[in-house]
Design brief:
The chain is an all-beta fold and about 200 residues long. The protein has a single domain, classed as TonB-dependent receptor, beta-barrel domain (Maltoporin, Chain A), CATH 2.40.170.20. Helices cover about 0% and strands about 65% of the residues. It contains no helices and 15 strands. The chain has strands at about 20-30, 35-45, 50-55, 60-65, 70-80, 85-100, 110-125, 125-135, 140-145, 145-150, 155-165, 170-175, 185, 190, 195-200. The protein has a nine-stranded antiparallel sheet, with no helix packed on it. A two-stranded antiparallel sheet has the order 3-4. It is globular. It starts with 17 loop residues before the first strand and ends with a strand. About 10% of the residues are buried.
Length: about 200
Amino acid sequence: MAGYNPWIGSLSQLANTRIREQYIGLKGIAGNHIAYNARVSFMKMNNQPLFINDGVDGKTFITLFEPDMDALKIHGELSYSVQETFSLMGAVTATQFNNLSAGNQAWGLIPFEITGSALWKPLKDVQVNATIFYKEGSLYRINPTQSGRLLPAVDMNLGGSFSLKKNLNLWLQMNNLFNNMYQRWNQYPVFGFNVMAGVVYSFK
């Protein structure tokens, strides 16, 4: 759960989450380059973790385990690829959470998102990749009288790698190209535009 929410506080209890999913979907290939995947799911969730800000300073999150929750999820993907040199992929996911009891609302869960990615290999040893996404803001709660919804987030990342030798690679990653100051978790804004670079040497 710390991988999903890195700001969770200490846990007084743990519970196993169980998800039962019934779905109908369509998956296939059109021509030599286009693939598609669509699914409508009805999900029954037991002990689903929800996250609310603590009542002290709100800087850590209390984890609530929703004992019984329903969700209707619609997901679609469309991709275009040319061998291993170029690919585009777009996906849309919409989720409606229903019948909550303990948490009252789906605190910290994202109800709607659009993602896109691209990969291009102009040369054998050069690779360029890009990702872009839109996420609707999740609901948050600091105390029973103070709650709301975070603003939507739009972000784009661009990266690349170059192989100098068989065991030596250079890489560059540029994040948040739009320099948008949004929050995935309440009171924790993401970094603005940032650049990282590195060298990878393999001993194989």
